[in-house]
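Entry 14. Structure prediction run on the chain below.
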Amino acid sequence: MTAPWLLRSRIEQNIADHGLDYPWWIPMISGLGLTTCAVGALGLRHDLWPPGTLALMLVLVTVPGIVQVVVGRHFPHVIETIGVMVAAAVLLVHPVTGPGAFDCAPGLLALLTAEVLARDGIRNGLLTAGTGAVIILVAADRYHLHGLPVHLIDIVLGFAVGYMLLWQMRALQAERTQREGERVRATLAERQRIAREIHDLVAHSLSVTLLQIAGARHALRDVRSSEDVSDADAALADAERVGRQAMADIRQTVSALAEGPAETHALPTAADIGGLVAQMERAGLRVSYDEVGEPGRLAQATGLGLYRIAQESLANIAKHAPSAPATVSFTVTQTWARLSIRNPAGDGGDGDGAGSGLDGMRARADQLGATLVAGRDGSDWLVDLKVQLRERDGMLWCPRMVRRLAW
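Output returned:
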């Protein structure tokens, strides 16, 4: 690793060790500024070369940075702060001679104020600024320091620079925290969406399979002719086909999650609800279907939500009341769509125990901005969904998705 990269990595490690969030060049500029002020102050006192006793003050200022770069370790911040203050105080005790001579030693205190405030917070920054101001006032009173107002203004400017750096760092940290929270929420929402998709897929496939197997079992129990055997065989064949399709869909979903996008397949829409009901009817469910309007005009996202709710409702019927008659009515107009599914409530008609099916339906209804009623209605179990529609580009969308498109 080259020397510049080694220097940068060690500075960044020091910043991380102290829980700060500054770019590496900010503490580097601060260190160079302190060194420059110390060298300038020694030069004004003619004690830089050949080095005199005051040259030791340059050691107090630069040793912490040198140790960090060479050894990879850092002094406690309080030792660094005290070292720079002592160096500035000793230099000011030995004033610059000559009429109207301007001293740059107070610049050490201004730079130190900015560094401490940006690093250690407002309280320590105020303490450092106050101490620096006292040192400058004493030096002006007892050791004839020239330019007192300018040096005090430098302290104030150092405080302002440190405060701006501190505020910027805290704002950046708050923004990163907010983004991380948004990422976590987005991840959770995506996981919930995937869980709903897999739940709906598995629940529907298992419901159809169980209905087919139950029908085959009853047919085999009452075998009287080869026709009964053929019916049982056909039911089992349908169950096998549905099971294989479910496994293929699950593999596709898992593959997409693990390896990225795979071959795309058309998702079901509102126009497929009639086929869904027919599939359940072929599996043995006693269900009637009434359709009014043009479901094919519904936008795909809106239609998918309605299809999944119908799918979950029919799966619940197959699970809790498979022998009872059920009715599905679906109406689509220019301004609204309504899906209503009713069946006599079975013993478990209030849900699936864990409640994931009903929670999934409510989540989908919320995504559509629809009103959903799911519960007992007298002796029946009713799922009733109504969503407002708006026309856009020849398709019917729910208003919430229209707003997203407009945005």
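DSSP finds twelve helices and seven strands in the chain.
Filed with the rest of this week's runs.
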